[in-house]
Amino acid sequence: MPELPEVEITRRRLEPLLVERQIAALETSRDSYLFLTRPALLRRRLPGRTVRRLRRLGKYLLAELDEGSRLVIHLGMTGQLFSSRAASPRLLSAAARGALAPGQQASFRPDGHTHLRFRFEDRGPEVYFRDVRKFGKVLLLRPGRSHPRLDRLGPDALEAEGEALFRAARKRRVPIKALLLDQAVLAGCGNIYADEALFLAGVRPGRGAGRVTRQECERIACGLRQVLLRSLSTGGSSISDYVAPDGSDGTYQDERRVYGRTGDACTSCGARISRRVIAQRSSHYCPGCQR
DNA sequence: TCTGTCTCCTGAGAGC
DNA sequence: TGCTCTCAGGAGACAG
Question: 3-state class of A92 per DSSP?
Answer without folding.
Answer: coil
